[in-house]
Protein: Homoserine O-acetyltransferase
Organism: Candidatus Rothia avicola
Amino acid sequence: MTTENTAPNRTDGVLTYAKVGDLTLESGAVLPDVTIGYETWGTLNEAGDNAILILHALTGDTHVSAGHVRADASEQDRAYAEAAGWWPTAVGPGRVIDTDKYFVISPNMLGGCYGTTGPASPAPASIDPEQKPWGSRFPLVTIRDGVRAEKRLLDQLGVTSLHHVIGGSLGGARAAEWAVTYPELVRSCAVIASGPAATAEQIAWGHMQNLAIRQDPAFAGGDYYPGPGPVTGLALARRIAHTTYRSAAELHFRFGRDAQDGHNVLHPLTAERGRYQVENYLDHHGTKLTNRFDAGSYLAINEALLSHDLGRDRGGLEKALARTTCNWTIAYVDSDRLFFPSDSHILAASLPNPVEPAVIHSPCGHDGFLIEHEQLERILATSIETQDAADEAKPQGRKHLWAVA
């Protein structure tokens, strides 16, 4: 499933590792010997400027779409590459994000558990001679820290300019930070179901999720490895989060006040009462996450999301965005109650050249950006076509003025 190199991965959709060195964090701490897990699709052109960076959401991974492997690939790599991925209709040959034309890169967020250095990763020998997992010693990382680590990956891959940076939710925050931190590198930025900063309400929701994990006795202060850890707390955190990912109208339409078949929700003993369908739904999603995600990484990435603020130490939002030179596409889900439509409008209105946000119509709430594929893909198709036209319109001798040396 994994290989380790510093060159473009010519086998599509296989998890690859790149070492990007020591990283000085916003906090001043140094995270040594950072590794980034990533996948690629397509081929980087000679100019290094046909790259599209796709950034996952909170508990997402690098496997955006199915890929293919060489005939001599291992069965493990083959099975991994052939899995559909979380955005299979948008990324691939001939699709909106055409891997016959663009070089697509999908990195795992700093602090994650899908190949990138995180709390479950072994600490380097310089920190711990026994190289036990980082656990409670893992430092606070921010969205900006993650973007700076990803920039080192792109440097290794030979990327000189990004045709697009695209992300939804946490990925949208990462995409916007990319445009502000590296304006000379980003030609177009698509921010989906996100905003310019974590709001007080989003911090409150995140705080409850983090407490659910930290107050599970199995968390052990963060040093629960190699055991299963705080699975009860992680499942509860996911229940809280998932409630914010769906709309009240959808939950009412799907479940209402209905009980599970054969359950008595008015049992005389509270401890033995039956279950409402919506309770079972949340329990399912909580348990499902514990089978694929690390609680320490959930905390690390959730804390990074809470740190999100494009204007921090940059003179405010408008001054931060004034440094950007890219084309912007901003879209929101009209029923989103985690990143409200107003978050997108604030971001769009604060740009040096304000844009009108696109609307994804969905009854499903925040998760609508993952559900309404056709609407989102139409929005992205327009954004990509616009950037293609802008590239073609540049004089031949000036085509790569934005490229980084």
The chain has two domains: 3-198+307-398, 203-302. Residues 373-393 form the longest helix (21 residues). The CA atoms of residues 68 and 164 lie 23 Å apart. The first strand starts at residue 3 and ends at 4.
